[in-house]
Amino acid sequence: MDLKDMILVTENDRGTETNMLMTLDDYKSFIAIDDMSELADNLLQLGRTLGKADNFTEYYRAANVTVSARFCLDDIQLGHFLQGFYNDSKEFRFDKEASSSECVAKLKEIGMTDKGWVDDFNLHYE
């Protein structure tokens, strides 16, 4: 998996923010839009985040639930996302269980913790 295939997802449920990392297929399942034209519009907006630094798309799942998402630009942006730079509140959590297993494996592969820091103990040379 390439970092640019990873989607940075934040769910704001009544002010409680949860960050997740997802593949495109998992993201489509997560937002669970039945209307194909609405799904296509959401994915078009998501596609427009490619290559842009701070552009997020928003989807209002319910009256008090907003999902913000964007494609990951690079490891720096990934670290900032995991550290909460893009969250409205500094009280957020990262949900490893709701994240795609491929994305969690990629974190380990690049030596990054779920807090957004490089884990020196995971790095090794061959």
Folded structure, characterized:
- With 126 residues, the protein is an alpha+beta fold.
- The protein has one domain.
- It is 31% helix and 24% strand.
- It has 4 helices and 5 strands, in the order ββααββαβα.
- It has a 5-stranded mixed β-sheet, with helices on both faces.
- A hairpin with a 2-residue loop joins β1 and β2 (16-22).
- The two termini are 21 Å apart.
- The relative contact order is 0.22.
- The mean pLDDT is 89.
Task: Report a brief summary of the structure.
It contains 4 helices and 5 strands. It is an alpha+beta fold.
What is the CA-atom radius of gyration, in angstroms? 14 Å
User: Terminal Cα separation, in Å?
Assistant: 21 Å
Task: Report mean pLDDT, rounded to a whole number.
Answer: 89
Helix and strand sequence:
EEHHEEHEH
Low-confidence stretches: none
Count of spatially separate domains: 1
* Helix and strand composition category: alpha+beta
Proportion of β residues?
15-25%
Give a count of the beta strands, DSSP E runs of length 2 or more: 5
The spatial strand order of the largest sheet comes to 3-4-1-2-5
List the total number of helices: 4
SSE layout and pairing:
Blueprint: E1 7-13, E2 16-22, H1 24-31, H2 36-47, E3 57-62, E4 65-71, H3 75-83, E5 92-94, H4 101-110
Features:
126 residues, alpha+beta, 5-stranded mixed β-sheet, 4 helices
